[in-house]
Amino acid sequence: MPDPMWRRIAEDLRLKIKSGQLGSNGKPLPSELELRETYDAPRNTVRDAVKWLVTRGLVVTRPGQGTFVQKDVDPFVTSLSAELDATLGGHSGGYLAEVAARSRAINVSSSSVEVQSAQGPVASELQLGADTTVVSRHQKRDIDGKPWSVQTTFYPMYLVEMGARSLNEASDRPEGTVWCVEARLGIKAAAPTGARTVSLPSRDGSKQPDGARFAVIEIVATGHDSSGQPFRSTITTYPADKNRFKMVVGEVPPPAGIKFCATGRRLAPLAIMHSLT
């Protein structure tokens, strides 16, 4: 059975994009009217073809402007390890060192802080009852001026009430919030548990760091104290078209140019999670 017309149009456009015939790096795609005339196709058929290109990250549609060939992306490879600092992300020395070693520029936004009720996965990860109050700290990270990830960390409010008041302050502490909890409350962080999931894009793009409708990779890492009680849960969301991941563990030399890791341990690749574009 032959492919439907929209699929044949989409494949032809894909080949022209890959060959450079339709330009690259932000060049506009022919207008809907031009595509209809070129392929002698009805409007809905052309729109279905363009939607197929959008879902595969080959083009991007900007309301009121048109559809454009997607700019080339140089994915960033993030090393994930079993160590607390590297797995939970944030301002970890290992992560910053990896960015610097690749001569790429990173910008981390200031934390936005919100007091809210624990719901769903957050309540489950922190072993809290429904509607228990938590503090969330939210940050965005850019690499080379482009949105690369968003990260939100949740803490039970009782930690603030016990004396770790900096968790509820928008200002960021250079030593990190885990250190603050340990210094103020004597709660020493143990290795976290974590889960990695792949999600389809939300309809309005709100789940993605830059609003793009791509699949995303979501990493949930929950830190525990020495008794096994969870005290923080971090959810980091990465657009799949801009990121690669490398699981690392063991005692081997670090990648060239990286002077230190989050814990000083050397790293070895175990597996790679490829982008879903």
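^ that was protein a. below is b, sequence first then the tokens
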Amino acid sequence: MNNYPIFIIDDDDDDLQMVKEALAQLNIENEVVIFNDGFKFLDFIRTSENKAFFILCDVNMVKVNGLELKKRIFDDEVLRLKCVPFIFMSTGRASSEVMKAYSYGVQGYFVKPTSFGKLKEMLQHIIWYWRDSQRPNV
């Protein structure tokens, strides 16, 4: 598995803590970098040389929602490949939202699990998939 950081973008502290705890229990050694605001992530990724193992982003955020954030990334030729893989995890499951996410080049859209155990299982599957997958930014 590559040792690039996992970037998590979510403005809900409880969700952030659960994801961090799930990754810790899965013994993931990658650094976990948290952004509680999509604009902060944009500022960071525009100036950073860091590559991501994967980016996990909430859709429903206050300052800039995840779909708008992903559209800004998709519209920027440099950021588009730099921000792969970009995965949404949201409570929303509206087909129009999912379609919009994929039209902006997202690599996955997952509904937030209702239990900690299911969250760990989902994250494990995401990690296994991206550990073995070839991608353009590595």
